[in-house]
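Is this the right way to post structure tokens for a design question? Let me know if I should format differently. Anyway, here goes:
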């Protein structure tokens, strides 16, 4: 009897959690109310941030990139979201189990009905405080927790009564009714969320007036091999990596950028003041340090922004400043050594792809800095601080390389068979060093020089294509690049952690 109730508590706690979370998701879509599992997940990943989280993210990225199931960023966020919901359900199952366990000794009916919900809610108090829930948000979560609690208690109560009953079919019928009701609530909650999410008009992104073009190279005629990625990544498929399941939503009118620390004139700048400063448009490529060779965590766009050095000059740096530190709305932090911060190509950006930043890519303002991996390009910046000691940013504290310099990389995007040859094409990238040449090899034979498209800028990847003679049949292609200063791409294979991946990309191909 006792075991049975414990098990029933576990099942009831978890299964009543599903419809409750569906309603919570609806509340988020309709009224922007908190969706507690995401916030719980967010807080835990920050508190537990360490080898566990790094290992988890690493494993996920390499599995996703190996399986090539689709966009690593999109799938990754999907898995994190699912993990957060699963974690919440496990928590509710545990509280339900506890209720089942204590059931025979809990004689006060109100305590039985409401205590589990109160316990769940109290556990969420620090989470809500961290995530900044409003009083309404706290109230909403309490109401849902109590509803879940009453439902869980109801099932247990019924179960106990039925336990006395001799007929098994009655128990089955009861479970069937509970399951049907839970399913209906879940479907209704999730269905409505979906519908309403679609009904909410996607706010059009304000276009950004084109600024003077910086550092643009003239583009020559070049016909990429079909299947080669587009030279400019559409913003909707620009890779996204950050520590949030849902990106922070910042109201530009409520936001201000602070420039502080060891400076003569600390500044507080509004969005309007920043966008009124002289800006420049520039093409540049961004690559995550977690990207594998040939992976999809790399994209190129036209950024719009103001020179960080202009901002810092306005603030007046003290001579003992060694680094510029960035603090972001989501708790992320990073820093750049002074020479990188003052690099004329390092810009505080408020535009990507000719429009204002999307919420996912750092609206209202993010950084772009050349030569370094994505982690050195903070999004949703709220504070820029001149510091006199080197600072370890979010990922550096987890053991990732502090400099995070990009490696020379080259990727085979596509190939097609020709008579007696393979035609291949792809991209190559080496930060601001640029690409001098790309070479392609068939089955370990001679390296054949590829044709390069003039890059969009010194900071953007180059498209290449090559025609390599090959006997009819299947082959393995290998690609390598030489950067603008003559350095050959590293052939040694390395995983992304902790310095970024290296090695040559390979692909299967055919010749006729
Ligand atoms: N505030 C904030 N900025 C951030 C991150 C983050 O988690 N929070 N992630 C960094 C990492 S690891 C990468 S690779 C880039 C990705 O930028 P994107 O999403 O615009 O492609 O953002 C960087 N900036
Ligand atoms: Mo990254």
């Amino acid at each position: 009897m006792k075991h049975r109730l414990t098990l029933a508590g576990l099942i009831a706690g978890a299964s009543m959690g599903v419809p409750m979370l569906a309603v919570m998701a609806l509340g988020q879509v309709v009224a922007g109310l908190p969706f507690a599992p995401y916030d719980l997940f967010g807080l835990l990943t920050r508190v537990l941030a360490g080898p566990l989280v790094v290992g988890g993210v690493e494993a996920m990225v390499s599995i996703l990139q190996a399986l090539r199931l689709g966009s690593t960023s999109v799938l990754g966020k999907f898995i994190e979201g699912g993990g957060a919901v699963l974690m919440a359900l496990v928590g509710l199952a545990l509280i339900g189990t506890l209720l089942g366990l204590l059931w025979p000794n809990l004689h006060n009916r109100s305590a039985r009905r409401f205590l589990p919900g109160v316990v769940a809610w109290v556990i969420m108090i620090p989470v809500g405080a961290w995530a900044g829930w409003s009083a309404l948000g706290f109230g909403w979560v309490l109401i849902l927790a109590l509803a879940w609690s009453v439902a869980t208690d109801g099932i247990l109560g019924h179960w106990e009564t039925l336990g006395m009953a001799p007929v098994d079919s009655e128990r089955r019928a009861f479970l069937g009714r509970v399951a049907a009701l839970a399913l209906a609530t879940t479907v209704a909650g999730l269905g409505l969320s979906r519908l309403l999410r679609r009904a909410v008009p996607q706010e059009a992104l304000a276009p950004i007036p084109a600024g003077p073009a910086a550092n643009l190279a003239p583009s020559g005629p070049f016909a990429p091999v079909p299947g080669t990625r587009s030279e400019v990544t559409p913003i909707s498929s620009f890779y996204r990596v950050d520590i949030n399941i849902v990106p922070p939503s910042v109201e530009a009118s409520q936001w201000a950028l602070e420039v502080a620390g060891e400076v003569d004139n600390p500044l507080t700048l509004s969005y309007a003041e920043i966008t009124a400063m002289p800006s420049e448009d520039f093409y540049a490529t961004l690559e995550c340090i977690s990207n594998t060779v040939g992976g999809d965590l790399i994209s190129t766009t036209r950024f719009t922004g103001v020179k960080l050095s202009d901002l810092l000059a306005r603030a007046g740096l003290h001579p003992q400043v060694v680094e510029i530190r960035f603090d972001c709305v989501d708790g992320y932090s990073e820093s750049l050594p002074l020479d990188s911060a003052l690099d004329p190509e390092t810009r505080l950006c408020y535009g990507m792809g000719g429009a204002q930043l999307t919420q996912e890519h750092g609206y209202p303002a993010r950084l772009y800095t050349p030569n370094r991996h994505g982690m050195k390009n903070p999004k949703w910046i709220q504070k820029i601080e001149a510091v006199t000691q080197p600072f370890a940013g979010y990922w550096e504290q987890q053991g990732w390389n502090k400099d995070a310099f990009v490696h020379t990389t080259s990727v085979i995007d596509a190939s097609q068979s020709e008579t007696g040859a393979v035609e291949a094409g792809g991209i190559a990238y080496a930060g601001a060093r640029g690409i001098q040449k790309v070479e392609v090899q068939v089955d370990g034979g001679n390296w054949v020089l590829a044709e390069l498209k003039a890059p969009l800028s010194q900071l953007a990847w180059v498209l290449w294509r090559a025609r390599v003679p090959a006997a009819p049949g299947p082959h393995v292609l290998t690609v390598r690049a030489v950067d603008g200063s003559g350095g050959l791409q590293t052939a040694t294979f390395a995983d992304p952690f902790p310095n970024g991946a290296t090695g040559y990309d390979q692909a299967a191909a055919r010749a006729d």
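Format looks fine. Someone answered above. Worth noting: The two ends are 73 Å apart (CA to CA). The chain has a mean pLDDT of 92.
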